[in-house]
Amino acid sequence: MQIFGTDYATPDGTCIRDYIHVSDLADAHVKALQYLQAGGESTTLNCGYGHGYSVAEVVDMVSAAIHAPLPVTMADRRGGDPAMLVADSSKLRALLQWAPIYDNLRDIVRSALAWEVQVENIRAQQKNPKAA
Prior knowledge:
Elements: E1 2-4, E2 16-17, H1 22-37, E3 53-54, H2 55-66, E4 73-75, E5 84-85, H3 90-96, H4 105-127
Parallel strand pairs: 1-4, 2-5
Antiparallel strand pairs: 2-3
Helix pairs in contact: 2-4
């Protein structure tokens, strides 16, 4: 895995992003669809938690969760990447009464890893159906 840029004006030098759990994102989409189906006016809404985590923090959290370091190499910045990109979801929260469930990096990582384990188990069962 590559980390693009370690010299940003952030606490650890890596980009900060507003990572969101797929279930929270899906819930926001469902609420938006229900709003439109009920006659709500089309609008633009930002979806996120309103705070971010650095790329290095995410790597460290995943490494801690799997009890092993991730193979990481540092690379030059990508053109156009801002140091920090965090959503202001206040309009989404107010208009759709949306509230996230996984507003915590540790919970997001644990959930993602649990999903990956489920997927691997399904693949293993498909390869060897008699073992199930």
